Amino acid sequence: MSELAILSQAMIRERKDIILSILGGFVAGIAGVVLFSASGYLISQTVFAPPLYTLIVLTSLVKLLGLIRAVSRYGERLYSHRATFSMLSRLRTSFFAKLIPLTPGVLSNRRSGDLLARIVGDVESLQHYFLRVAYPPIIVVMVFLTTMLATASFSFWMACLLLLGMLGTVLVVPGIVLLGYRNINGHVRKQRALLSTEVTEVLYGFRELKVYGQLAKREQQLRQASAALAAEQQRAAGQLLRGQSMHAFVTYLISWGVLALGAYLISDGTLAGVYLAMLVMASLTVFDEASAMATLPAYKQDSEHAAKRLTEAVLTPTMQPVKPSRTLNTDHAVSIELSGVSFQYEGEWRPALKNFSLQIPPGFKTAIVGPSGSGKSTLIELLLKLRTPTAGDLRLNGISVQELEESSIWKTANVVLQQSHFFRGTIRDNLVMDGEDHSDGDLLDILAKVQLPTTSLTDPVYEKGENLSDGEKQRLALARAMLRNGKLWLLDEPTSSLDYVTEQRVLTHLYEQASEDTLLLICHRLNGLEGMDRIVVVEQGRVIESGSYSELMEQKGYFYKMKQVELQLIGETGD
Predict the structure, then answer these.
(1) Can you tell me the distance from the alpha carbon of 322 to that of 313, in angstroms, rounded to the nearest whole number?
(2) Which residue ranges does UniProt annotate as crossing the membrane (predicted)?
(3) Are 305 and 435 found together in one domain?
């Protein structure tokens, strides 16, 4: 599929405005040629002192053509820009619709600054595709051919000269510009993406860079990236200026050729002298319509590169091959079944999950424990359909996750991830995110259950929760999940930053609310797991132990050893 196929499809949807803009541009172009030709003819006629009515007709025609040209040009600008902005809107919507299901995979594969550059800069660059790539050749050919046919009625050789000029401006000049611009194809966009990436990382990591004394070094890298971008932009601007200069040269060369050829034809008696000024003005005017051809290759290369980068961002192996068509029942507890599930991150040498099998009946409380990097968090991302298994089958309520609509899974899931995002606003804004109406009393009650009774709903929250401690972030995330009515709880280290006393109090309220729901808890701490229906021990993406708390303790296997180490550490801390 061509990189510009998405643009072609968007143009087809806006075909009405595109046709109207082409019609307006053609009328404006022809009106301009006829306007200046009539002006030249009027000037020539005044030498011969024609009747007054002839001058009145010519003068009125010039004024009428001026009005037609202005109105047509306005219509052409109106419809062409409306079509362009509508296409950009569709492209943004389409791009985001394809990008959202790929998260968080696309975020882990690409730097956030580069992705931001694609979302903003590359989409904006596509606005030039219709206005400066697809549209100009159509108008130039239509206006030139019409002008040449009209010119041929006065002189065949004059029409041939205009044809030669059209070939020069439509093919030769753009070809030369393309050869020169090909060497810097995409360099400006790449440097802009690099600068955006560096700026984003400096802003996000400012404190760490400051503390470790690396801020000056990163500032120097920013200056170098900015200088490189300016240099590439200067090179690109030079190529555009070169094309415009060559177009002006061809324009005046053909106009001088028309003047010389006209003088010869007049002396030869095959052309009336009164038409010479008209033909010269026509040649000058018709080339104005072709001025956009000089910069067409640059915008074409830029648009193709931008479309390619957007396509690369969404056409990844993590795209869903099956179109979801079923929804998950949200009224009852959910059963979970994994059969031989494997998953490997792109570029990783080992799989995060390998032949992972697990069955969780509805209403079961299951804990997943194991060392860091054993694939526990990946399991939740697969259940939420944020990633796609590379092998195996994953089912909710007996339905393959691939067949389920993401929205139905998210609606029934109360999720707390290791890193929860908080938006700039207030505590209330960050609690009420499910679109449901919650009274202040309900919100304050939830805050009390997560051990934040003194927190006000109007307290400010900075971007990414910068003014909150890790423990406060976790408790707010738990409160946000407890406000939902889902029947599936997916909790990934929800209390790792809390002290033991606060943790037990919070989990007591959570377990009470989820008493009849399916709950999957990922944790490193092993205290409080006595009440779990099942504990699954995972290592290197495999299930190595499974059973109740008492069963695993009796086996004295991996879980037992982990528990003994934890008890020893707690004892040392207590001492």
Answers:
(1) 19
(2) 18-40, 52-72, 129-150, 156-181, 249-266
(3) no
Taking 70 as the pLDDT cut, the residues of the chain under it are 1-6, 49, 96-122, 124-125, 181-186, 189, 305, 309-325, 347, 434-435, 570-575
348 and 295 in a single domain? The answer is no
What is the per-residue burial (b if ≥16 Cβ within 10 Å, else e) of 288-316? ebbbbbbbbbbbbbbbbbbbbbbbebbee
Amino acid occupying residue 412: T
CA distance 103 to 318: 9
Query: Tell me, what CATH number does 366's domain have?
Result: 3.40.50.300
Question: By residue range, what is the domain housing residue 280?
Answer: 5-186+236-314
The model carries a pTM of 0.62
Indicate the number of domains in the chain.
2
Specify whether 266 is located in the same domain as 355. no
CA distance 362 to 504: 24
324 belongs to a structural domain: no
Closest CA to 421 of 94, 92, 97, 103: 103
- Cα–Cα dist 307/311, whole Å: 6
- Whether residue 292 is found in the same domain as residue 342: no
C-beta of residue 386 within 8 angstroms of C-beta of residue 104: yes
**Any bridge partners for residue 259, and if so which?**
none
Nearest one of 390, 351, 389, 340 to 373, comparing CA atoms:
351
Q: What is the 3-state secondary structure (H, E, C) of 80-111?
A: HHHHHHHHHHHHHHHHHHHHHHHCCHHHHHCC
Number of Cβ atoms within 10 Å of the Cβ of 468: 19
3-state secondary structure of 521: strand
pLDDT in tens, 342-369: 988 776 778 888 899 999 999 999 999 9
The residues, any chain, with a CB within 8 Å of residue 510's CB and separated by 6 or more, are 449, 478, 482, 489
